[in-house]
Amino acid sequence: MLSEVVLCSSTTDSIINVLDFRTGTLYTSFKQNNCFKHALALIPYPGQCDRIGLIISAQADKSLLHIYSFQKDQVHLKFICPEKIVALVVSNRGAFCAGGTDNGKIYIWEISTGILCKVFDGHYKKINVLKFTSDDSALISGSEDAGVNVWLLTSLLDDSVDETPSPYYTWSEHSLPITDIWCGIGNFNTTRVLTSSLDHTCKLWDLATGYLLTTFIFPTVITCIIVDPAERMFFGGGNDNLIYQVYLYRKQENRGYSATNSNEEIIAVGGTGSIEDVCEISSSKDNRKGNVFKGHSSSITTLALSYDATLLLSGSQDGTLMIWDITSKQMIKNFSHYKGPITNLFTFIKPPDLVSSINNLSNKIPIQPIQLFQRNTKQHSEQKINVEYVNIILNDNTKVKVIFGLI
């Protein structure tokens, strides 16, 4: 039977825990891990986004990447990096891994071969978060310099260009360091991007045009964000111990003629660069506009949603993990396996490797292969990156290639 599990880590406890989603029962723990927020990622099987094979984390105190398999609690592999990685992300199809550093550099490796495809200066200051778009056509980076850059992956992997790559978009409307980034579902022409910052705002962007759609103002710093798969609402975890729920659509009275019996229609919130005050939204009589989850005793550090988006998971600074029913706003479960802040939180379908390890049948399922990550790009010209491309046309009639997957 398919079931969901929760994977979480902390900066103070050197373990990664895998828990049962509903009960909080501990399945297994991975030792020797100490990573920052946004420095842990899941590696899916190539072409199988819903099947997780490996875990990769960048160590906070060393220039190392640790690879974990679900079949043992020790480190499976260790990769030495050219410098310490503080932000890490894996593409949705499991083809590439990107890492950011304290000095603003970005590294990109091909997972199947270990080739270091590109090293470039992405920002002036520390990289806080990296995200791939859902079609893996672009990499989005957020930094302590308050900037958000959108990089086309094809331009980063172009061997014929030796110059430092230029971002496709540079969003500089935030005034303080970026705390989190979320990318919507869809291809480059239909995706929206949500960013959060220490400046008490979340900004919604149209990736096709690069335009700022809406700015949401909060009464506190928003440290983490998550959006439901249908993009009807998003949740922001604040430093004031609250989780803010903001609806992206609202009801509006329809004063004109309508063939239906209802006098209300659903319209999108914001747009055209407008500003929405979340305090006013949450205090409105229309409960569809937003709400607040109360229960944590310390600031929120990370958020995740269940597979069907009916339950919300939240981790806090004091190591508490809570499960909420989104409809009723009630807390269902409260448990803790850490003494310090929860920094990374993921939910996914229980891997078959995890079931095998519990039943001592690990030898029946081979561990997903992975190649040693290279430390320099000198071998790059001698090896070919195994990718396949499809052409898409952007809104400005510019034709670009989009990475589709492994050959």
Automatic annotation (TrEMBL):
<dbReference type="GO" id="GO:0006364">
    <property type="term" value="P:rRNA processing"/>
</dbReference>
<dbReference type="InterPro" id="IPR020472">
    <property type="entry name" value="WD40_PAC1"/>
</dbReference>
<protein>
    <submittedName>
        <fullName>WD40-repeat-containing domain protein</fullName>
    </submittedName>
</protein>
<keyword id="KW-0853">WD repeat</keyword>
<dbReference type="InterPro" id="IPR036322">
    <property type="entry name" value="WD40_repeat_dom_sf"/>
</dbReference>
<dbReference type="InterPro" id="IPR001680">
    <property type="entry name" value="WD40_rpt"/>
</dbReference>
<keyword id="KW-0677">Repeat</keyword>
<dbReference type="InterPro" id="IPR015943">
    <property type="entry name" value="WD40/YVTN_repeat-like_dom_sf"/>
</dbReference>
<dbReference type="Pfam" id="PF00400">
    <property type="entry name" value="WD40"/>
</dbReference>
<comment type="similarity">
    <text>Belongs to the WD repeat IPI3/WDR18 family.</text>
</comment>
<dbReference type="InterPro" id="IPR019775">
    <property type="entry name" value="WD40_repeat_CS"/>
</dbReference>
<dbReference type="InterPro" id="IPR045227">
    <property type="entry name" value="WDR18/Ipi3/RID3"/>
</dbReference>
<dbReference type="GO" id="GO:0005656">
    <property type="term" value="C:nuclear pre-replicative complex"/>
</dbReference>
<dbReference type="GO" id="GO:0006261">
    <property type="term" value="P:DNA-templated DNA replication"/>
</dbReference>
<feature type="repeat" description="WD">
    <location>
        <begin position="293"/>
        <end position="334"/>
    </location>
</feature>
<feature type="repeat" description="WD">
    <location>
        <begin position="120"/>
        <end position="151"/>
    </location>
</feature>
<dbReference type="GO" id="GO:0120330">
    <property type="term" value="C:rixosome complex"/>
</dbReference>
